[in-house]
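BUG: 3D viewer hangs when loading the predicted structure for this chain

Environment: internal workstation, default settings.
Expected: structure renders.
Actual: progress bar stalls at 90%.

Input used:
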Amino acid sequence: MNLPNRLTLARMFLIPVFLAVVTLKIKYGDIIAAGVFVLAASTDGLDGYFARKNKQVTTLGKFMDPLADKLLVSSALIVLVELGKISAWVAVIIIGREFMVTGLRAIAATEGVVISASTLGKWKTVTQIVAIVAMFLHNLTFQLLGVEIGRAAMAVAVFFTIWSGADYISKGWHLLKKGEY
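Structure tokens produced before the viewer hung:
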């Protein structure tokens, strides 16, 4: 059990903490939940950094890292729908894209093709994290300016989700046909 895998597991263990903070209706719960979410999300970049830097990429890490990411984001989106902060269609688009890319990668893997994370996929992740945090902060930092940053950030996240999903389908389909990637 190396450091990158421990960070990935920490992200998974923070999900129930995040959910508990949100659902227990404690004072400043949404702000605390945003902090827990940021802490959990930050382990994503750290685990990859340490895995590559220390040459500690493992099969367990390759499986658990994307699973932890999907569980964290999906949990937050489902809670936001439950709280009435976002529409269900937003969560369906974002979660559906994750299933689609995971399925495409699984098909590619059976053909010996590895579909790595793209730059667009990384932007998608960043915009989703920013949007989720903004939604939990209730526009706190932008109230004085009268800017509804949470909804705008979520719109940007949906845009990057759709764009990166289409990019994965396009590139994955063509490279699977050629036997490359």
